Amino acid sequence: MGQRIHFVVDPQGWCCMGIIIFVWLYNTIFIPKVILFPHYEEGNISVVAVLCYYFCSLFCIASLFRASVADPGKLPENPKIPITELEHWELCNKCNMMRPKRSHHCSRCGHCVRRMDHHCPWINNCVGEDNHWLFLRLCFYTQIFSSYTLILDFCHYYYFLPLKKENWDVFVFRHELALLRISTFMGLIILGGISRLFYTQLMGIFTDTTSIEKMSNCCEDISRPRKPWEQTFSEVFGTHWKILWFIPFRQRQPLRVPYHFANHV
Predict the structure, then answer these.
(1) Which parts of the sequence belong to the Palmitoyltransferase DHHC domain (predicted)?
(2) Backbone angles phi, psi at 112, to 5 degrees
(3) 156 within a domain of the structure (yes/no)
């Protein structure tokens, strides 16, 4: 099952995505040039450390682009509503279209999204039923990439042996300290923000509630799981195989669960 492309025209979202891409490019270019390659040439680190860094970088940017262009669960203009499910649909008072309960109308995207969690400007897209798993995977790989970068920044000064070769790029050599301080600052900011967001998302899956439902207080006892956590995670990632939940570059096969099974909005 292929993933449908979804593109949102939003200058604010483009700016937020541009900031994320800048941070990713900065660390992908300067960290190997300042730390990885020089220490690899002098035998302080192995080629595995270099390859792992680039794999983390690749998984991070791939997750960003997949989450930003994936259809979050946009409803078609004339949805075919099964007769058995008709009572579990409702009319949106903003776009005057029928939608399954737990859907929400996004004012930025201009349409309703199935089981919408929130609109994220950092991916310039909604987070809904069909791309929630991609958003979680983006948070996961971003934490790994930021943590790896911070570890390398720390080890460069306090653990690795001093570099003997100094005839490399003059600009990088003269501004090494400033470059690494910028990298550390950005890494701490992103790691702190993403970790908090990732925790919030995980708690939402555990309790089977979206961020919109939590803010609207429409669900009773939202802190109490209504399904086993394995089932809620399997529904989000589209598979019961836990090892596949964070495997990159795979396609999601949605589990067929009735819209009315869980809490309603």
Answers:
(1) 89-216
(2) -85, 145
(3) yes
Residue 83 within a domain? no
Exposure b/e, 17-44, CB count within 10 A at least 16 = b: beebeebbeebbebbbebbbebbeeeeb
Nearest to 263 by CA among 104, 117, 92, 101: 101
- The residue from 120, 126, 139, 219 that is catalytic is 120
Supply the Cα-derived Rg of the chain in whole angstroms: 22
Cα–Cα dist 121/233, whole Å: 24
* Residues 135 and 72 sit within 8 Å (Cβ to Cβ): no
More reliable by pLDDT, 234 or 80: 234
Quote the crossing angle between the two packed helices 176-206 and 11-31, to the nearest 10°. 130
Q: Phi first, then psi: what are they for 201, rounded to 5°?
A: -65, -40
Structure token digits, residue 20:
């994320």
In a domain, 223, yes or no: yes
Residue 112 domain flag: no
Is 120 part of the annotated catalytic residue set? yes
Q: Which domain holds residue 237?
A: 11-72+131-160+171-244
pLDDT at 20 over 90: yes
- The Cα–Cα gap between 22 and 53 comes to 17
Task: Quote the strand ranges of 41-133, DSSP E.
Answer: 89-91, 98-100, 104-106, 111-113, 118-120, 125-127
Amino acid identity for residue 79 in this structure: P
Per the structure, the count of domains in the chain is: 1
Report the alpha-carbon distance of residue 72 to residue 126 in Å, rounded: 6
Percent of the chain with pLDDT over 70: 85
